[in-house]
Design goal:
45 strands; ConA-like_dom_sf; mainly beta; DMFA2_C; 9-stranded mixed β-sheet; 10-stranded mixed β-sheet; 9% helix; 761 residues; single chain; N,N-dimethylformamidase beta subunit-like C-terminal domain-containing protein; Class_I_gatase-like
């Protein structure tokens, strides 16, 4: 648990918790971190076969009841500089300058200063409520209203150069090289004892007034720059590091990763980023044409070879990636614990009823244990990407999460509630999510839109496969794709690997590991849709997952995009590894090249949106060996008896490149249709006969198009020319029908048989 300087706390009502790790090996210690405003009792349980409830969950340990204990969170990112300007030494002159892109101008925010209201008010540059640029010139003591002056007006979501000058007699404010106003200020100015902060000030000794803004090239001088010098700094567009003895501090922000911010002035005013912030933000001089025509365009662009890119740091008042709560319970997972999904279950009273709050985690086989023939991959990356409202208001009944993970009602209006599908509170696109945070969407009781359908993604959906394998007598191990990221070589120990659920987000090491495993003769069963669509990366201590979606180069940044939140073109480069993010196919790792199918669309407005499989090759071995299914061409499967829910084809789905090419109506200049993979056998077609209200069909370039007679997914068998065999069901809902559709179960038994796996082994 990392410590931070004194910081404004936020106390949350309700019951919330997380484990220190999302995946743990049997025999290892696991810590649970809980904040609760009421008494609770915690039990550690292995999830049983009751996917719709918890009737046969196995309790491994039950802790003694716990008393209420609220642990606050401390949201808000900024840069803390230990070595500020000398507290007691009067200043003879001062210039503060930086480039800033405010994401909001409706509240007061601190850009840079040594300011602690009301007792230690030195100097500070602010965005005042309404957008005026404000300068405070105090003596380092108690706040004096006449020490604060504001002039001009800043615009939201646009880069602007700001400067404040003071020569000992006159102060002035400047916006984009033009003076916004000046006033007489013949007073003594002392920095005072408040810490130096970028993007925050303090109230009553606690970091506060957080800036929702992108900062670039903040600089302090010991004199007032002249008008011509300020005009020159504006013309430099944040690309020129100032030199000379008058420079007291300059932070070029060239690190582009990590928590340290170096000072280029020689005065060693190194800064530390609190609550992470966001690196790899393009500045005002950036030229989008250098990157390419669009997100999917192949490009040799190197962000570190572009002298006009700029080095921005994005701050947000709701940034939080680690709750930093103390551990309330410590549990050693038994050495002989079976691999699978587990929960720490908090039981408490809510509105006179008994309620549960589940903290989901994965138990892996220890390294020395014998491996099962099957490895099942949990889509942890996707669970994290969808983890909106981590501090959701507690409910008793199974919650239904809204489409696009808009989130449940939060327990507090100021609690962070962003994820890969929702914006930060001030409108910044979310590029990162923290692992040391609650993820109530990962609970086995979480449902997903459409309401009333019984559909889910995340743990509840994926458990259906686990339960089916166990009931059918198959031995299997479970890991998260986060574990595959850490050690891609672990696949080599298994006969077949199952990609399950909504496995949308993959890291480069994980996808390369799967490709290498297949090239060496391995086999993969993909019960997923929207598979391997977007790239993620992790920081060194595996505490933050990063992903990046961006708009096209011509997008008006003052207008939010239609669809998932996306940022400025050029910001698709990750801070963790500096490699290109966004769609995996843009980084040369198209899902179709690995597992045969590519993302092709989505629909989740109503339960009736879900379609079924139609047989195209009834004589294929997978329909006949060793268990004949007795299907004829055109017959359906992948649905409950009589054709009702659950049905497999819905939410999101995948198609072959050959089919996507038929759906592509326009090819941009310089682009070309991808070449279809060789040897793919389409054994069934997933069809949705009736269009839904939120249907979206995508072509080869992920542009909107129209379906071909409702064709939404394809089920394939592929003996890859480069090595390895793949069965791909092509739909998020594939595992949903297991246990309800005997035909799909028998088909899966045939697939496992073909891949050398028998029950009871």
């Amino acid at each position: 648990m990392s410590c931070i300087p004194p910081h404004k706390p936020l106390h949350l009502p309700g019951v919330h918790g997380y484990a220190n790790r999302k995946s743990v090996a049997a025999g290892e210690l696991l810590r649970f971190h809980v904040s609760s405003d009421r008494p609770w009792q915690l039990s550690v349980c292995r999830l049983g076969s009751d996917v719709e409830g918890c009737s046969d969950d196995v309790v491994l340990h039950r802790f003694a009841p716990s008393a209420a204990r609220v642990q606050p969170i401390h949201p808000g990112s900024y840069v803390h500089v230990d070595k500020g300007l000398p507290a007691a030494l009067p200043l003879r002159g001062l210039t503060v300058e930086c480039w800033v892109k405010p994401w909001r101008v409706d509240v007061r925010q601190s850009l840079i200063g040594q300011y602690d209201f009301p007792a230690r008010c030195g100097w500070g540059l602010f965005i005042e409520e309404g957008g005026a640029l404000g300068l405070h010139l105090g003596d380092g003591g108690a706040f004096q209203a006449d020490a604060l002056q504001a002039r001009g007006r800043l615009a939201a979501r646009r880069w602007q150069h700001v400067a404040a000058t003071w020569n000992g007699r006159v102060a002035a404010l400047w916006i984009d090289g033009v003076q916004a106003g000046q006033w007489e200020a013949a007073q003594e100015v002392r920095p005072g004892p408040a810490p130096l902060r970028l993007g925050a000030a303090a109230v009553d000794g606690l970091a506060d007034l957080f800036a929702d803004a992108d900062l670039l090239m903040p600089v302090l001088y010991d004199r007032a720059l002249e008008a011509g010098e300020i005009a020159q700094r504006f013309a430099g567009r944040g690309l020129v590091v100032p030199a000379g003895r008058s420079v007291l501090a300059c932070w070029p922000l060239r690190e582009e990763r990590g928590a340290q911010v170096a000072d280029a002035s020689g005065h060693q005013r190194t800064g530390r980023i609190v609550n992470h912030g966001t690196w790899m933000i393009v500045g005002p001089a950036f030229e989008p044409a250098k990157v390419g025509a669009g997100e999917d365009t192949e490009s040799s662009y190197d962000p570190f070879s572009d002298p006009t890119r700029g080095h921005g740091l994005r701050l947000a008042s709701d940034d939080l990636y680690d709750c930093r709560w103390e551990a309330t319970h410590v549990f050693r997972v038994p050495e002989d614990a079976r691999s699978g999904l587990y929960v720490a279950r908090l039981r408490f009273e809510l509105d006179g009823r008994e309620a549960d709050y589940d903290i989901t985690f994965i138990v892996r086989k220890p390294a020395h244990a014998a491996r099962a023939p099957i490895l099942v991959l949990c889509a942890v990356n996707s669970w994290l990407a969808y983890a909106s409202t981590p501090f959701a208001k507690n409910v008793v009944d199974d919650p239904v999460w809204p489409r696009r993970s808009a989130g449940l009602e939060s327990c507090h209006p100021q609690a962070p509630a962003y994820c890969s599908y929702t914006y930060h509170r001030a409108g910044q696109p979310c590029y990162q999510v923290g692992l040391r945070m609650p993820w109530p969407n990962g609970s086995p009781n979480a449902l997903y839109d459409p309401e009333g359908s019984g559909f889910s993604q995340w743990a509840r959906l994926e458990r259906r496969l686990h339960v089916w394998l166990e009931r059918e007598g198959y031995d299997f191990d479970v890991i998260g794709d986060i574990d595959l990221h850490r050690d891609p070589s672990l696949l080599s120990r298994y006969r077949t690997v199952v990609v399950n659920g909504h496995s949308e987000y993959w890291s480069t090491p994980a996808i390369d590991g799967l490709d290498d495993y297949l090239r060496r003769g391995g086999s993969a069963i993909v019960l997923s849709g929207n598979t391997m669509y977007l790239r993620v990366s992790y920081d060194e201590d595996m505490s933050v997952m990063e992903q990046r979606k961006v708009n096209g180069p011509g997008h008006d940044e003052t207008v939010p995009p239609v669809g998932p939140p996306a940022g400025s073109f050029g910001e698709q480069y990750h801070s963790q590894d500096w490699a290109r993010g966004g769609r995996l196919k843009a980084s040369g790792r198209a899902a179709a090249d690995i597992v045969g199918l590519e993302t092709a669309g989505w629909a989740f407005a109503d339960g009736e949106d879900f379609g079924v499989y139609h047989v195209t090759q009834p004589r294929h071995a997978l329909f006949n060996e060793p268990h004949p299914l007795g299907l004829e061409e055109g017959q359906t499967f992948g649905h409950a008896p009589g054709g009702g829910l659950p049905r497999a084809i819905g939410h999101e789905w995948d198609l072959t490149i050959a089919t996507l090419a038929r759906m592509t109506k326009q090819v941009s200049p310089g682009a070309s249709l991808p070449v279809p993979q060789q040897g793919i056998e389409v054994i069934a077609r997933g069809i949705r006969r009736v269009p839904g209200r939120l249907d979206a069909y995508l072509d080869c370039f992920s542009n909107l198009t129209e379906s071909i007679d409702g064709l939404s997914a394809e089920m394939i068998y592929w003996e890859r020319p480069q090595g390895g065999r793949v069965f791909h069901a092509g739909a998020v809902g594939a595992a949903w029908v297991l246990g309800c559709d005997p035909l799909f179960g028998r088909l899966l038994r045939n697939v496992l048989y073909r891949f050398g796996v028998r029950p009871g082994e």
